[in-house]
Amino acid sequence: MLPQASTLAKNFDILFNNIFWFSLISFALVIGAMIYFAIRYHRTRRDPFKTPYITGHHLMEISVSVGLLIVVMVIFVWGWVDYKKLLKAPSDSLEIQVLAKQWFWEFQYPEGRKLTNELVVPLNQPVKLIMTSSDVIHSFFVPNFRVKQDVVPGQYTTLWFTATQLGEHSILCAEFCGTGHSKMLGMVKVVNAEEFQQWKKTTPSIPAVSKNPQEWGKELFSQKMCNTCHAITTQKLVGPGLFGIFGKEVELEGGKKVARDENYIRESLMQPQAKVVKGFPPAMPTFQGTLTDEEVNALIVYIKNLK
Ligand code: CUA
User: How far is the CA of 102 from the centre of ligand 1 (A)?
Assistant: First the structure.
C-alpha cells in the first residue's frame, strides 16, 4: 500500500476499503448463490416434466431493493462528507499558484519564488494550490496524499492538503495531455517548519526568483489602466472599488449573488459582460489576449491583498 502522507489520506482509504470489501463480499455471495441454486434446482434432478412457475415474492423484492438503496445512500453520504472536506481549504493555508504546461509543473510562492517540477512544503501546514493551465487540460495527482484535481486552461481549480510525512512524494499528471504526458512528473518535498524557513532564507532563487506577484500586480493595475475605472478603496468610480472585495459575495444585475473568488476575477478580466455588478454600467473592456496567465495571477494576488 502507498504511504498515507496527508491528513485526508486515512479517510479516503477507510472509505475505499469499505466499498472494496463490501463489493468483493457481495460479488462472492451472489456468484456462490447462483452456483448453489443452479446445482440444487437443476431441472433433471427434480421432476423432469414439472418446473414450478414462480410469480414473485413481494417482501423479498422490496427488502432487497430498499436494502441496496440504503447501502448506496450510506456510501453517497459518506463520500459527500469526505468530498466536502476536500473542497474547502482551511483559511490559514499556505497559498501556492500552480501553472501546468506541456509538459511540466510550475509552482509560484507568495513571495514570487518559482520552482519547476518541485514543490517544497512544510510538514503539518495546510497548503492550498490555485491551479491553471496554459495549454490543455492536465490533472494534478499526488497518490501519497490521495488528492487529484483537473487543471484547466482559462479557469482556476483548487486543491489542498496537509502533509503528515517528511520526505518526497511523487506528483503525476493524471490526464492525457500529449506526447510528453508520461514524463510530466514532479515531486512534493515535505520538510519540517524550521527547514522550510531555512530553505526560504538560504535558497531564495531555486532556480530563479521572479517578480513578487503582489508588486507586479500593483504595477499592472496602473499600466493596464485598471485604475481609471476602479479605485483601490471602497469608492465607486465607473466600476466598483476593489478594497476588501475578495472572497465576499456581491449582487449582480438581475439579483443573482456570486462570490468574488479567483475564477470571478479572471472571468471579469476576460469576459467582463458575463457578470455585471448591480448598479454599474457594462463598460469594462475585455483583456482577453492582452494579459498572460502570469499577469492575471499577479493581478489576482494584488486584488486579494487589498484589505
Ligand atoms: Cu499533463 Cu498529462
Answer: 7
